[in-house]
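hey m, so remember when u said the tokens were messed up on ur end? i reran from scratch. heres the input so u can diff it against urs
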Amino acid sequence: MGKKVLIQNARAIVTCDQNDTVCRNADILVNGPEIESIGPSLSGTEQAEGAEVIDATGMLIYPGLINTHHHFFQTFVRNLITIDYANMTVPEWIAKIYKIFQAIDDDVIYYSSLTAMADLIKHGCTAAFDHQYCYTDRTGKRPVDRQMEAADLLGIRYHAGRGTNTLPPESGSDMPVNMVETTEEFLDDCERLRKRYHDPRPFSMHQIVPSPCQPMNCRKETFVETVKYCRENGLRMHTHLGEGENEVMVRRWGKRTLEWAEEIGFVGPDVWIAHAWELTPEEWKTLARTGTGVSHCPTPALLGGFPILPIKDMQEAGVNISLGCDGSATNDGSSLLDSMRLGWMAQSYFSKSRGGAISPYDMLKIATVNGAKTLGRDDLGSLEPHKAADLFMIDSAKLELTGAFHDPKNLLARCGVTGYTDLTMVNGRVVWRNGTLTGVDEEKLSAEGEKVFDRVIKEPFHTFYSVS
């Protein structure tokens, strides 16, 4: 038996279960990492005896958000008007930004990950996947290890995408030479990380996802061997696909990227891809037929002026869509609440002439239920008995939210509730409450991170950080 916590007298609990149940004036009893029961007046029951009580009077409770695509290492290149993704072509952006990326060391990895994870937690995210493909001479093979340190310190549930780039620039890659590995190096480190961190059990806090960065910047053998390795070891796979690379892939291989990936087996219910805005309706059928998921990242699409993913059409075709922040080089923030709002607004604008948009509640389920499916986690994504106690609370006693609580399901994206949560719980542990990250000295970590940023990035690249 674990520690019991009784979350008492919530105004509404939006469960996101199969029946879309909303429990009003109800309690949640948590036992260790899992939800034991949900219902009214649990405080008087035998099962709640001895439980720590959290007063949730006036609170709206939601399942923890699940982020399915990010690049934590990019957090220290935010707010750079001199490298403005919105006003550059992708090649121009890569040419400038990778001058910084190739100088990153493992201290930058650690503190930039802490920064992104804190932002996620404060905005209701309880489980995060990060696509870590920045391996330089200065980081060595330590990035995922440093990220695991950061995740454990803050208490977030972490799926580490061990990325790589294996195609050298002389063969057509965009990657600097000191960010290129061999396929053997990559898979050897995946195996090391799998043995050290991967936990496939229910309520696990760590999992490993081999994730070659993108077909355009990797050798074909990297993807072929990744498929073999992951299927032998029961691991999921991820990559960037359908984000403008098809022209290159057609020149190089005579076929579009998804066809190339299907031929080598890099599709299936254990695979999801980021972005996919370049895919065609016929290719959506391939995704649906194979069970391959998509992480939709609305912020970089809007910032870069790329097509808006037609979520409703893709879902009707049978594609599982989840939600991602993407890296701070193309987002400048790590709030999945903000991504929900922006994503829903973009869908509403895009879909008016296409038979209607998805609802704000649909977007919440994309960020919860669909995220859990994407990560292969049937223990996450909704608030139900025997699922993980991953949740966040919003206080309804705020004047700016007055009059909006008749429909708590649609409230978040519809009304622009994008600020800090009042409480975030992961695996039955409160990690953020009343403006405080529990168990850490946030001011001290921030000061340490700022020193690392100054030493490794700001001072060596001062011309990028000079503002007139």
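this time it looks ok to me. The chain has 15 helices and 17 strands. if urs says something different then somethings off w ur setup not the seq
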